[in-house]
Amino acid sequence: MFNWLYKLISLLVENVFRVSMETRLGSSIHFFFYDTIKIIILLGIMIFAISYIRSYFPLEKTKKILERFDGNIGNVMAALLGIVTPFCSCSSVPLFIGFVEAGIPLGVTFSFLITSPIVNEAAFAILLASFGVKVAVIYVITGVVIGTLGGIIIGKFKMENHVEEYVYKMQMKDTVIKELNQKERFKFAIDNVKEIVGRVWIFLIIGIALGAVIHGYAPAEILSKYAGPNNPFAVFVAVVCGIPLYSNALGTIPIAEALINKGVGIGTALAFMMAVTALSLPEMILLRKVIKPKLIATFVIVTGIGIVIVGYLFNIFITGII
Known about the structure:
The protein is an all-alpha fold. It has one domain (24-318). The protein is built from 16 helices and no strands. It has helices at 3-16, 24-54, 59-66, 71-83, 92-101, 106-118, 121-131, 133-156, 165-169, 182-217, 220-227, 234-242, 249-261, 266-278, 281-287, 293-318. Helix 8 packs antiparallel against helix 16. The two termini are 14 Å apart. It comes from Clostridium tepidiprofundi DSM 19306. Belongs to the UPF0718 family.
């Protein structure tokens, strides 16, 4: 898809920067400019498309949709709606309160909370640019499966008493759902592109810059030996290391791409990315305002185990399709 851009950047590196593509510096410069332009193009397209779809699913409407579903179907719907619904760690507390106040089961709420940060249009766009359609689609499917099963398991534990008491006493006012016309939907999508790109570009540049350094200078032999798909502990270590960090998919995917190019297992790299986005320490601190430590620990353990399993499955079955 982007062969034209690859060749154009190669000419830029060799004729403008006058650095050979065969050198580490040339390889790093090419990685930085190529990935930056490629990702921004796809990011803009995907954010616009998903934002247009999202205009039909404001949070209040999402809440009302989930109120209609019971049992495991509710978990599936919550995970699917998590894909097209805006979510960041700063919105976790009001979103959680709104779902609980609406009477949505705890497990269904967690299906949404797990899926939203892992799977979104920005992550899909960068995965598509970096790894191709197959990996991007499989990533989305596995993210939804983790959210669905994670929410079902948490729901089985019946931990409603580990939600802070004041949450059940709160009465949130219903928001009037405004129906948008086509012009307003297009404006919403364009504004969303500007807002999201403006908010995350720094993460993107930092991630691509780190990826460029790894791509050009990281020792492939060592990374392949200790973090390759044949190391039985690599995925587990990647998840444990990812939890204390804070970033988003935009910052971690370029790093994952560079690591995979150096021989790191694709499951190991993507598990690290999932852990950073779904189980970041700042989000846990915010959630502590509405849920007690035992429920937070359950959320981290259940989601973490799901991510580890997906990481190993990627290493076993997906390696080699890129």
